[in-house]
TrEMBL record:
Pfam families: DUF2458
Organism this protein belongs to: Trichodelitschia bisporula
Protein name as it appears in the record: Uncharacterized protein
Biased composition (Low complexity): 27-48, 72-82
Region feature Disordered, mapped onto this chain: 27-51, 66-112
Amino acid sequence: MDQPNDSGGSSLDIDAILRSISQFIPQQQPQLDHAPTAQPGQQQAQPQLHHGSSFQNLEQQQVQLSTKYTDTPASTPTSATSLYGVISGQQRRQSDPDAQPPARTLSPTINPATITEWRTAVRCVTTMMQQNPQFAAHVRKMIADQDQNLKQWWKDREALIVKQKSRIQRTKELNNTLKALGAAPASDPTDEENIAELAHFDVKVYKASQRMVDVHTGELKRLGVPFFGIKPERVTKTPSNDPNDTRITEEQLLQLQRRMIEYLEDLYRD
């Protein structure tokens, strides 16, 4: 996603602050829950999503990102898979011996919390897309929230720059009046003061972006997206020379999270 160019002379790089949320993704996430087991003779239902998100706009250059996820009522199937765990289940077999042969079994169970390889992750996401019709809507909502916040933050930053320039003009007008009255002139804001004010705003934006990342990361975990909510034992601090060791390092996990975000954006960005 392209970012506006920084024209405010700030000591902080707003491009770095307002990059895609993937650059701020935490390096390790809590463990996912396991799916409940279906009762005999019952079919495991597909994951059902019961949450949403909303963000409040920033006002008067005060960067405050507010998030809220509210559970919404939905019909409860007799047997349901956990939202955090297994994303594929066994088709219920027909009890009537004269009935048609049972539907073919879906692909083997995949637990997103254990995936450490890219191709397996893509297959997992593809299965989720097929089994969960709400998946795309939730991903698009996160993309829209991100875009809205980035645009609002940039708009507020530009407004602050305009405000700083207008202060200089107002000070000149005030000094003309004071000069006519024989009073001492007012001092203009220094460049250092303006830069410090803009840098303070950038810090607020950075903190707000981190809060947004935390919310979106939790959302991806709840959706069962691989690499978000990976089991801690699947991550190691140091790389292993053992070819049979399927664990990944924290740095590799971060790279896979970024790659997954880019993959989802390619799929669902309007």
